[in-house]
Amino acid sequence: MTELGGLGQALLADAARAAVPPESTQQAVGYPSLFLLVVLGSLVPVVPTGALVSGAAVVALHQSVPVVSLLEVFGLAAFAAFLGDVGLYWLGRRGVGSKNGSRWLERLRDRAAPERLAQAQDKLRAHGVAVLVLSRLIPAGRIPVMLACLLARMKLREFVRGDIPACLAWAVTYQVIGVVGGSLFPEPWEGVVAAVALTLLISALPSLWRRVHGAPQRGA
């Protein structure tokens, strides 16, 4: 019975490997999808772009030449995030310069709590465009800082100068999360699940922290 059970597990493992598309197909489909989703997630901040990059890094880790695949994921993710940031900032600048504003600017305002916007404005005055790097690494920190840059009427070229290192640092950070998650499990799908779960947990921590420590105490 033990031998039959072991044979069954081996057959299931072989079937799972056979169901996985070849590496060339994974890259042909996965890379454009990653690029488009990260651009979209940067323009419309509802797509968990960090989780996408971490999951892609896990898949790249199990490719035949992982170093090359990881570099490709890094380059695609950083460039897509940069394009999305610049596009959103350009749309926001149109709203700042318009008498009637724009729906993009209003969306940014809706997603930036007043206290977080005030903190971002203080940091922008103190550190300049360098604050863009930190904003990309802190979950939910990008939008308040971008809005602060817009309200300060920062020129597009100045924003670009700060956003390039921010996107590079962001891509490296979430790729490292993916590599760590992927290296803990033998199967790629297990690493993807672990990396995505870890990324979503990190993203949720600031919100949970604010709810716990910012909630008013009863009877106070």
Can you give the mean pLDDT? 79
Secondary structure class reads mainly alpha
Approximate strand percentage: under 5%
End-to-end CA span: 66 Å
Specify the biggest β-sheet. Answer: none
Question: What does this 3D model show about the protein?
Answer:
It contains ten helices and no strands. Helix 2 packs parallel to helix 4. With 220 residues, it is an all-alpha fold.
Brief characterization of the structure:
This protein is 81% helix and 0% strand. By secondary structure, the protein is mostly helical.
Write the topology of this structure.
Layout: H1 2-19, H2 23-43, H3 49-61, H4 66-97, H5 103-110, H6 114-127, H7 131-137, H8 142-151, H9 156-183, H10 188-214
Descriptive tags:
disordered N terminus; elongated; mainly alpha; 220 residues
